[in-house]
Specification:
The chain is mainly alpha-helical. Helices cover about 60% and strands about 5% of the residues. The protein contains 13 helices and three strands. Helix 10 packs across helix 11 and helix 11 crosses helix 12. The longest helix has 30 residues.
Length: about 260
């Protein structure tokens, strides 16, 4: 009887252990599920209505995002300037920017597809870079300048840069090649590319134009592998692809860390 009881206890402990491992795996997967934080909605509320409570929420709930937007993206002053709220509102009073804000909210009313695509892409990237931390991602509205802002484990997507290749403002101010990259489909590849670049920045040894081009080629090649299609297609990506075919034992991390470009030709 004692032996049966002993075996029963062992079995129970084993099951508890299995349950714990399963739960841990589920939690790990949850950590890699990306849900874009809609900072842009609070921003839009303030910029279209002047509702000061929205500005207070931007400062209190999103201090890092607000500082980055005002000081680094828009460059309209310091976030602690007593007049910065008025300056911020005035900056976006232009009719073109007001229309853009409304267009952003219409086109990106639902971003669930991007949540799923980002989650899938960063899971695949983490398989290649196991020590990489999954970033927190938020959406914002800029003024047609920067696409993706990289902070400390954060990615800020400027939705105003992804309104479609035929968006009227783009047609007037950007080339056809540039406009091809300003679509909803480019949000995930751009997030991957900018985040990889932040993890593997250019070194002093990469200051020649050729090395800089090849460094970006390596990053774009990795993005293509993660996305499963040729998002980026150019000569430098082709050179990296040929190099990786010749060196099948080279891992993605080794490729990104290697600063000797003499073999990529």
């Amino acid at each position: 009887m004692r032996r049966v009881y002993f075996l029963l206890v062992i079995t129970m402990l084993a099951c508890i252990g299995c349950e714990w491992r399963l739960k841990s795996n589920e939690e790990a997967m949850d950590d890699m599920n990306i849900a874009i934080d809609r900072y842009d909605r609070i921003e839009s509320l303030y910029l279209t209505t002047g509702d000061y409570s929205a500005m207070l929420k931007m400062n209190k709930t999103y201090p890092m995002q607000t500082r980055t937007l005002i000081e680094d993206v828009l460059r309209i002053g310091q976030v602690n300037d007593p007049e910065i709220s008025a300056k911020f509102l005035h900056y976006f009073s232009d009719s073109t920017l007001q229309k853009m804000i409304n267009d952003v909210q219409q086109q990106f009313a639902d971003m669930e597809d991007l949540n799923q695509d980002l989650s899938h892409a960063f899971r695949r990237l983490k398989e290649e870079l196991p020590t990489m931390e999954i970033p927190q991602v938020y959406a914002q509205i800029g003024s047609f300048d920067q696409s993706v802002i990289v902070g400390h484990r954060t990615l800020g997507i400027s939705l105003d840069k992804y309104l479609g290749s035929d968006y009227p403002f783009y047609v007037k101010h950007y080339t056809e090649d540039q406009r091809r990259m300003m679509t909803r489909d480019m949000i995930v590849p751009d997030c991957l590319g900018f985040y990889i670049l932040s993890l593997f920045p250019m070194q002093e040894s990469e200051q020649s134009q050729r090395n800089r081009d090849l460094h970006m080629g390596k990053i774009q090649w990795v993005v293509n592998q993660v996305m499963g299609n040729d998002v980026f297609s150019n000569d430098r990506v082709l050179l990296v692809n040929q190099y990786m075919k010749r060196n099948k034992g080279v891992s993605v991390e080794q490729l990104l860390r290697n600063t000797d470009y003499s073999a990529i030709r």
